[in-house]
Amino acid sequence: MLSIRTRIFTIFSIIVLVLLAISLILLVAWKSRGVSEELPEEDGTGLTGDVSPGIVVPKSLVTEVPAGIQVKPSTTEEIEKNAAKQLSKVFIERIASYSTDSNYQNIKDVKELSTSELWVELENDIKDTTGEDMSFVGVTSKVFVSELNEWSGDNASFDLKVLKTEKRNGELTNYSEDYFVEVVKINDKWLVSSFDKK
User: Residue 51: its pLDDT value, please?
Assistant: First the structure.
């Protein structure tokens, strides 16, 4: 007579073998039937799957301009205005974003974007804070409006509206600030010559 342990092991093994055989039979039957390559039905939007309701993707992408519509290439002035505008936005987003842990890295990041005169002023604001015991403050800035004030080919000024998210003592605060930025073109490179918080 077999021990109870041997009988339980034998019964369990037979059950596992039966389940394995059934799985193998089903797998072979499914493979022999062939898999249909049909796509799921569309819901009329041209999209399948889980799609955010705020996203609307056209069924077909436009690959060429329809007849009768003229596409005007950007002029040199428009390209220059855009370059000056982008510089002012990047400059403010970097200089207005800071953290007590970064040791004035936000100011160091804008050195290449500033005129030498502005850099001398900014460099004076840098001090060594290593070893100081401060509570954490972090500010992230994002420009959401940029308006051109003046343009004269080699210099321009912009008004910027900035959304700031501040984390202080574990609490998040959102607020906006306005900045005024002047840029100049020196040796075919746009640089920030001055900026000020309004």
Answer: 45
